[in-house]
Amino acid sequence: MTVNPPLIVVLGAAGFVGSAVFRELARHPVRIRAVSRRACPVPEDARAEIEVLRADLTEPGRMAAAVAGADVVIHALAYIAGASTWRIADGDPGAERVHVGLMQDLLDALADRPDSQPPPTVLFTGSVTAAGSPDREVLDGTEPDRPKGYYERLKLEAEQLLLAADTAGTVRGACLRLTTLYGYSAGSTARDKGIVSTMTRRAVAGEPLTMWHDGTVRRDLLHVDDVARAFWAAIPRIEALAGQRWLIGTGQGAPLGDVFTTVSALVAQQTGKEPVPVVSVEPPHYAEVSDFRSVTVDSSAFRNATGWTPQVSLEEGLRLTTEFCSSGREAGVS
After folding, report:
1. Are the C-beta atoms of residues 58 and 34 closer than 8 Å to each other?
2. Whole-prediction pTM value?
3. Beta pairing, strands 121-127 & 221-223
4. Across-strand partners of 231?
5. One pLDDT digit (tens) per residue for the chain, 334 residues
6. Which listed residue, 105, 229, 247, 334, has the most CB atoms within 10 A of its CB?
7. What CA–CA distance (Å, rounded) separates 265 from 259?
């Protein structure tokens, strides 16, 4: 008797995180349904059986069709506030619909399954910022949740919905709280709007790289390809992970001044131009306390549970990212 490989549904498969997860999954002999509102390129070297579904999941009834028959769902949906800012305004109804409403739609759809079927696995792309701004630099998952911003509160509410469904037994759910993400690699198909790629674009354009501090603020920077591998590692270990939140990071905080200086130097090498200056400027009015706090993520609990470990060093990740932007390939992603 032939047994079908598991069906893994990636929600937000054309987004920055979702596209990286999709590429990683496609390397394995599984079935994938890649769900997104816009075109979702299929990797040329894919080993997986792939179905691409274009759908606006905010429309009534679309979620149930998107996850029908799923064994695993990876929730990588994200709300894009707009081109002018990466921050979500308090009370933005679109953000609440995407972050909380779609999680509820997902759980409602998965609950409406025959009792004879095992509960599906749901992995959620959370954020370490859901814990707010703890006084200590190193986060290990034991911090109390005191989210400050609207985005962080919405992420936490979505997590709580998923973990409640896990307790009820309708899904096997786990939240992967991600540190600051960045990066491109050869197969990238989605635009990175994070701080590293933003500064890389400025360097390519010959513009100064600006900081709201003296450059000593540290960030735990995780390449998006390592995030994708974390989700792949989590799937077979769901029994150990279910019902909990897990921090995902490198365990090393890099001073942003050093990161930006490296970006400037790499872009200069790749373009043959002079390195752009890295300068401190007055912070804007919308700057938050968290912008000036250093963060390092201790992900040893997740590593011990899954065997996952980051493979892309910061040096290699910055080289890949600056090469991608300097070569003009970023113009082909959206």
Report:
1. no
2. 0.94
3. unpaired
4. none
5. 446 899 999 999 999 999 999 999 999 999 999 999 998 999 988 999 999 999 999 999 999 999 999 999 999 998 876 544 456 777 777 889 999 999 999 999 999 877 778 899 999 999 998 887 777 899 999 999 988 888 899 999 999 999 999 999 999 999 999 999 999 998 999 999 999 999 999 999 999 999 999 999 999 999 999 999 999 999 999 999 999 999 999 999 999 999 999 999 999 999 999 999 999 999 988 877 778 889 999 999 999 999 999 999 999 999 999 999 999 999 888 8
6. 247
7. 10
Burial zone of 334 (CB within 10 Å; 0-12 exposed, 13-18 middle, 19+ buried): exposed
| Nearest-angstrom CA–CA distance, 182 and 190 | 12
The phi and psi torsions of 7 (rounded to 5 degrees) equal -95, 120
Looking at this protein, which amino acid is placed at residue 289? V
